[in-house]
């Protein structure tokens, strides 16, 4: 979700995030600050140049993008700077961290135009509209097909499989305290094994040689042998916590482009993630921020998003690329968790996980 810097990841292919910064009007004078709207995001924000230009022309606002690391880091920084925010809209808070943002008053209410076209299952703050759903995806373990074929070993399919001796020293995951996919994977195990069972499961994973790194970029592009980046880096871990949509990215941005995805998904290890954007409480350009939120749920952006950020749209009727269906269909039965349960237990779980796994 996310987290998903496939553009940088898959790897060095010249795709750049489009941040319109420091422009001037045609007469050479600096643009009024009120005509610039600033989006603060995690590192995985990407939008097509034409789609962004269409929004800027139609709305009259220029979009400036500030990236702030992995989702967990970006949310924490936004909370710390909420009284004097870096921008107007924050994108990238997901259902694993939503209550932290809401409880800290990060956002002000706004009901985006077009929200009526967003499926109700994604509207987790429907009563107050402090956040707007933008995308969803599944955090899942990915595997390197070549490794398992070469070793004549069936890839793991479930959480239980990952703790088996056959997969010792093969899995890399992200730190649950700093990384959104790492936290999602922890919540997936808590949903699977319950309040009492997940610590024992993680004891088994630790005994089985799980490796923990800070964030998705390092895990996927430096440690995972199945990714384009990992192959270049000489990575030696054939299992990684990533996304169900990672295999299509490996095909689409492969050079040369492979005919089949070099990676697969362990479909019994998935946790459903929903990402949101919100108007920051002390936004300097709230009108521009509202226009930007309207844009994020528009059909134009929703259909542009999958092949840029490798997530699924939330708007009804938004087309999903054929590559997603062929190489990375959404998980049919991912683990989920009530947002109230996440809010009540997340911080204690992360504290317990840190003590259990990192010490």
Plain-language structure description:
- By secondary structure, this protein is an alpha/beta fold.
- Helices cover 38% and strands 18% of the residues.
- It has helices spanning 6-9, 49-59, 71-80, 98-103, 145-150, 159-162, 180-207, 216-223, 228-233, 246-252, 286-296, 299-304, 306-309, 322-327, 339-357; strands at 36-41, 62-67, 89-94, 107-108, 132-144, 171-174, 211-213, 239-243, 263-280, 312-313.
- Strands 1, 2, 3, 4, 5, 6, 7, 8, 9 and 10 form a ten-stranded mixed beta sheet that branches.
- Helix 7 (180-207) crosses helix 15 (339-357).
- The longest helix is centred in the middle third of the chain and has 28 residues, at 180-207.
Structure summarized in a few sentences:
With 359 residues, this protein is an alpha/beta fold. Helix content is 38%, strand content 18%. The longest helix has 28 residues, at 180-207.
